[in-house]
Amino acid sequence: MSNTISTSSERVPMSQKIAFGLGMLANQMFPAALGIFMVVLVENLGMPSWMWGVLFFVPRIVDAFFDPVMGFISDNTKSVWGRRRQYVFWGSIIMGISFVIMWQLYREDSVIYNFTFFLIWSLLFHIGLSIFSVPFVAMGYEMSDDFHERTSIMAISQWIGQWAWVIAPWFWVVMYDPSWFPNADTATRTLAVCVGLSCMVLAMIPAIFIKSKSTKNDHNLKPLTLKTIGGSMKEIIVSFKEAFANKPFRKLCIATFLIFNAFNTVAGFTFFIVVYYLFNGNASAAGIWPTLFGCGGALATTFVVIPIVAWMSKRMEKKKVFLISQGISVFGYILLWFLFVPGKPYMFLFALPFFSFGIGSLFTLMMSMTADVCDMDELYSGKRREGVFGAIYWWMVKFGFAIAGLLTGVIMSAVAFKAGAETQPEGAVTGLRLFFSGVPIAGTLIAMWVMRNYDLTEEKAREIKKELDARKASA
Predict the structure, then answer these.
(1) Per-residue b or e along 291-309, where b marks 16 or more CB atoms closer than 10 Å to that residue's CB
(2) What's the CA gap between 350 and 269, in Å, rounded?
(3) What distance in Å separates the CA atoms of residue 373 and residue 378, rounded to the nearest whole number?
(4) Residue 421 neighbours by CB distance under 10 Å
(5) The pLDDT of residue 2 is above 50
(6) Which of 96-100, 211-215, 239-243 is least confident?
(7) How sure is the predictor about 295, in pLDDT bands with cuts at 50, 70 and 90?
């Protein structure tokens, strides 16, 4: 396996897995905090829902279209540090600093000014996220060529990364507790500094501690110069088409797009459902219950879902584990419809372990399966393109996330929900609840149908690995 971090089928040292996991913690903390802080834009800074939708949509679209470019650059970088580390390092700095600045918003400024300020810095943040995340994810694909060790790497990184979703919901408590801050926008300005700088340091750790071979003298890599930029762009398009033509990989992308982005379309409704349905619009009375929803789901993922999924994946095909996990999550979404009970907020906690199997299992399995696909691609194309495959996979995630953000605003407008109002129009909260359960159930069921005949089995993956090993030995 050329130009990879590890060329061995042996176990990856735990220190390397933890270093990758700490990078994943930063990679997940940024969107976790972002999703919570975004509520401030409508609740405290007075932005209309269409502005909220635009701020979700535009930066993520830019990020998504920059990912394939970053994947090509990462795959073809000649450097004594290898192909990935320098981008992970500098991307983390851009992310951290721009995240801090973009949340320095004041209610004294006009809505248009805050909207424009946030949009500009959010664009820079998402470009930094692309510079960091595409090479970072490719690092994970490269760490082992063993079928089960890949799942172990991803399970550990997701276990560490899930703590972002345990910690982030408590920001709601800090933001809306007057003993901490006078208002939520003041709290957000301060919390953004803590999140931005701490995650910047965490994101640097893989660049510093994960080993990488020098590619300075690798003549198989494409040159990256201004003179070849036209050819590079053509190669990006060709690589994109070739990767997406890979049938198993295409199924992984489509299934992830449906599940992750159906979830994100309605994730922002949690706060509003808890406050307006369970507590009749009284945010103070809701207390820590919005936080417990997010935190409880993340804890269930960390201590129940990921260990079970990792255990199952060593005993049955990854596709079967995926289908079982997503089926459990559909049951969880159905339970949430019945267990949001006014006056009994604790009831929804019983649904969280089931609900959490959806997102909790998704990336542990899909990232491991994408690494298997990279072997398949190398066998047929003769190229090692973790960066391109990682970029395309996350392009689907981010493009869908952008669509999800836009749909969030559309749904809120369609049901006539008015964020910040003491009372809501009749049917508005019920409408949110219907979408909250219905959209993820529909997305998950379609994704399960797409994955029903995924055929890159363990037996086939091992045959591919043997052929690659034989090819390298003869070379």
Answers:
(1) bbbbbbbbbbbbebbbebb
(2) 19
(3) 9
(4) 11
(5) no
(6) 211-215
(7) confident
Tokens of 81: 């540090």
Mean pLDDT along residues 297-324: 87
Quick check: 262 and 405 in contact, CB under 8 A? Answer: no
Q: What is the pLDDT of residues 233-258, one digit of tens each?
A: 666 677 677 777 888 998 998 999 89
Q: In the structure, how many helices (H) and strands (E) does the chain have?
A: 20, 0
Residue appearing with tokens 């605003």:
409
Confidence of residue 226 (pLDDT cuts 50, 70, 90): low
How far is it, in rounded angstroms, from Cα 48 to Cα 95? 27
Residues 6 or more apart in contact with residue 223 via CB below 8 angstroms: 76
Rounded to an integer, what distance in angstroms lies between the CA atom of residue 212 and that of residue 380?
A: 25
Which residues have a Cβ under 8 Å from the Cβ of 36 and sit 6 or more positions away?
Answer: 168, 169, 171, 172, 175
Q: Report the candidate in 169, 444, 149 with the shortest Cα–Cα distance to residue 313.
A: 149
CB 107 within 8 A of CB 44: yes
Phi-psi region of 342 (alpha: psi -120 to 50; beta: other; left: phi over 0): beta
- Whole-number Å distance between alpha carbons of 61 and 399: 6
Model-level pTM?
0.72
Q: Is residue 2 helix, strand or coil?
A: coil
Q: Is the pLDDT of residue 5 over 60?
A: no
Say what the pLDDT of residue 364 is: 80
Exposure b/e, 38-54, CB count within 10 A at least 16 = b:
bbbbbbbbebbbebbbb
Q: Do 55 and 38 touch, CB atoms closer than 8 A?
A: yes
Per-residue DSSP letter, 451 = G
Residue 54 CA to residue 62 CA, distance in Å, equals 12
Reduce the secondary structure of 156-191 to three states and give it as a string: HHHHHHCHHHHHCCHHHHHHCCCCCCCCHHHHHHHH
Cβ atoms within 10 Å, residue 15: 10
Is the Cβ–Cβ distance between 2 and 385 less than 8 Å? Answer: no
Q: Which helix (H) or strand (E) holds 344?
A: none
The Cα 163–Cα 28 span in angstroms is 9
Using an 8 Å Cβ cutoff, are 151 and 160 in contact? Answer: no
CA distances from 8 to 142, 214, 257, 263 (A): 10, 17, 32, 37
Q: Of 58, 17, 56, give the one whose Cα is nearest residue 39.
A: 56
